[in-house]
Write a structure and sequence with these properties.
The protein has about 100 residues and is mainly beta. It folds into two domains: about 1-65, no CATH class; about 65-104, no CATH class. About 5% of the residues lie in helices and about 35% in strands. The protein starts with a strand and ends with a strand.
């Protein structure tokens, strides 16, 4: 069994578990396609989730951008915060307005 992401207009709309034969049988529609994703992130950078995007040039799934100020790491295809999260074992949440980590 493998995981597959349904891609419509470069956006993941569904993730399923199916036999490889399901995809090999030509189960593709006019406006979407199925792309295999790796739960262990062994290929296509990240596991596909509904709402994430698929970049065919990078052959990678890219998560939803959490905040406008975060930038895409071209190597990992993950979003990175402009300010490092403090490493003090406290809980923080990102404050987009002030561009800071606020302790919660």
């Amino acid at each position: 069994m493998s995981h597959f992401a349904k891609i419509e207009n470069n956006i993941v709309t569904e993730v399923i578990v199916a036999e490889q034969d399901f995809i090999n049988s030509g189960a593709v529609g006019d406006s979407f396609l199925w792309v295999q994703t790796s739960y262990n992130e062994n290929f296509r950078k990240n596991f596909a989730t509904v709402g994430s995007s698929y970049d065919s040039t990078r052959d990678a799934f890219i998560p939803i951008q959490p905040f406008a100020s975060w930038t895409l790491n071209e190597t990992t295809c993950l979003w990175e915060c402009p300010v490092a999260l403090p490493d003090d074992n406290k809980k923080y949440e990102w404050n987009e307005t002030d561009q800071t980590w606020d302790e919660v």
